[in-house]
Amino acid sequence: MNVINWNQLPALTTLRAFEATARLQGYSAASRALNVTPAAIAQQVRKLEAEIGMSLVRREGRGLVLTQAGEQLAQPLKEAFSLIASAIHDVKATEDMRGVRVSTTDHFASTVILPRLSEFWAKHPTLQTSFSPDGNTAPVDLEAFDIVVRAASPDRIWDNCQTFRLLETPLIICGAPSLVGGGNVDVASLPWIADRGIGGGVFREAVRRAGCDPDEISLVDPGSAKLELEATLMGYGLQVSPELTIRDHLADGSLVRVNVSPDMRGVYYAICRQGPISKQTRKFLDWLLRICAPLSRTS
Length: 299
What we know:
Largest sheet: 7 strands, mixed
Radius of gyration: 30 Å
Order of helices and strands: HHHEEHEHHEEEHEHEHEHEEH
Low-confidence stretches: none
Strand content: 15-25%
């Protein structure tokens, strides 16, 4: 393949103006196609002629005709621009077929996304969406996913990413009624569910703020972040949790907020790669921002 010397090629705007003039047989028609004035088209064509050192069009009566050089250049330009347009169409079509890939946490997906997803699909029935409940401590992989949802402190920054605040939620300490009764308990005397979900040292800090030594408390480890909530509901221990993910359980009484608060807040973020966001991803992101806004709480 020949290496293109871009320094020897005319500006794309001049080539595009000439190609449209040749294909549509005049400055006026070309100007309408490119949404500029006829004078601007004529100026670009003259600039191209000056750069390559030969005439490409000439007046004939009240119209324009191509010179021999113009005829020689017009067809390859038409084919080249057609090839570019076809390639761009194919890239967009591939992107549309791939859909939107979302990495999230298991509890965020089950409490926020899935209960409302039918609304999104009703508006965008052909937009494929796939979800991976990777957990809050999983790496932010923007090569594998278009959107990554993670919870973090309100001042968290991810480098080389675009971040969108979805909602804010307090962290609370809770337990099953069989363990904590109405919630007025001595938390130091009770077992705690070990944290594998929140990460970032948040659990230990919450335990300290509750007045306990994180190295002295009794821990129950259910083995995975997905089982933490189940273990809490069964009364095996206290859990440190974003209020958002257990809101329904607090409402129906299957979990009770204890009398000690760590006074900590978390923010759920949607994280995207730097640069332009595809139309498909933007549709899901805008929907996600809209449904999350009324769910935000500070206490």
